[in-house]
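FAQ

Q: What does a record look like?
A: Structure on top, sequence underneath. For example:
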């Protein structure tokens, strides 16, 4: 990924000017590099400041690599500046909402990495801050930019597929023991909030809910196997959707056959007049042409048939094309003050659903999604 980022930086080198939107990045880890590269690619903005967490050396290396003129270990110093028009929040998951709310309260639009946060009340406070200031607040869920999934959503919303019956959503990836010791917060309940469902599989959960609408109740179980971590690396849940459909969710970061998809995910939606299948990074409409019988036509919903980028076993592999779309769209939002592609109020559905799975796993009962 870093070689790819270097190429992008070379291409867009020299595009900085004083009239561009000033952007700050909070957090200087791996995902922050994708944000920095996307900002350079867009060309309408300039990365003028960054804040690191506990690793000063990492922060200084980040600043040098991306020509960031101001670097600090306290992101609150950035709130005092008058030249920041947008903030990218790339900190550990438990800090997302607090960081974003502080920028929003200072009058600065915020783009938050996934998940929006690990605590529902914190997400609410963050959204309230955006509403109070009438500012855009977005989240990074790149699946929502995929052409096939966009077309699938339109088909489902049109009513062409009829009633929704059954939904299957899965995340299958692999994370080694070394992955969890590569930073202080990975695999920790307090900072990560959860494992294969809240952290890695949240992309799949968001894409599912974006297509299907909200889940009403869940019955879940989670477990931790073969790793010295505090969060789950295997989990499953039965789902009852508000539209009446039934569903199942499964996640694992122990798979030796990870999904060959950008986020390691797969979704299947069975409806009255056909099915939607998202697999290997592509979406297919299985259209039944004869009601009451089996006369199925397979219709690809993606124009691009190239092999998808897969991060199932390699978290450092980032699909820069879709990530760029999210960041570039939010730059437009910060300039024009409009709603982003992935508004936080919609993105929170994934967090609320996963938190309900955790509550169900603890109580042993069906739990409401709240």
């Amino acid at each position: 990924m870093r070689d790819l980022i270097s190429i992008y930086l070379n291409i867009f080198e020299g595009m900085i000017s004083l009239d561009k939107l000033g952007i700050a990045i909070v957090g200087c880890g791996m995902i922050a590099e994708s944000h920095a590269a996307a900002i350079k690619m867009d060309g309408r903005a300039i990365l003028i400041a960054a804040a690191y967490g506990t690793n000063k050396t990492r922060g200084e290396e980040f600043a040098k690599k991306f020509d960031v003129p101001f670097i600090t270990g306290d992101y609150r110093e950035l709130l005092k500046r008058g030249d920041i028009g947008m903030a990218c929040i790339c900190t550990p998951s438990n800090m997302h909402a607090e960081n974003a709310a502080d920028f929003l309260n200072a009058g600065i639009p915020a783009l938050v990495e996934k998940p929006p946060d690990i605590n529902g009340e914190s997400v609410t406070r963050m959204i309230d801050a955006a509403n109070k200031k009438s500012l855009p607040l977005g989240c990074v869920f790149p699946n929502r930019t995929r052409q096939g999934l966009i077309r699938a959503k339109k088909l489902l919303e049109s009513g062409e597929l009829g009633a929704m019956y059954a939904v299957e959503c899965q995340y299958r990836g692999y994370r080694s023991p070394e992955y969890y010791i590569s930073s202080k917060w990975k695999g920790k309940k307090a900072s990560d909030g959860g494992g294969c469902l809240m952290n890695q599989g949240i992309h799949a959960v968001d894409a599912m809910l974006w297509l299907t609408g909200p889940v009403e109740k869940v019955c879940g179980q989670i477990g931790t196997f073969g790793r010295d971590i505090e969060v789950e690396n295997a989990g499953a849940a039965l789902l009852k959707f508000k539209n009446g459909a039934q569903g199942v969710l499964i996640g694992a970061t122990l798979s030796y056959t990870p999904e060959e998809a950008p986020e390691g995910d797969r979704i299947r939606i069975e409806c009255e007049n056909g099915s939607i299948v998202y697999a290997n990074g592509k979406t297919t409409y299985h259209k039944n042409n004869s009601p009451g019988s089996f006369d199925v036509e397979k219709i690809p919903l993606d124009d691009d048939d190239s092999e998808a980028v897969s991060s199932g076993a390699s978290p450092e592999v980032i699909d820069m094309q879709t990530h760029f779309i999210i960041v570039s769209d939010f730059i437009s939002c910060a300039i024009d003050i409009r709603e982003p592609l992935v508004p936080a109020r919609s993105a929170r559905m994934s967090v609320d659903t996963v938190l309900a799975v955790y509550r169900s796993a603890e109580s042993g009962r069906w739990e409401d999604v709240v």
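Q: Is there anything notable about this one?
A: The CA atoms of residues 17 and 46 lie 8 Å apart.
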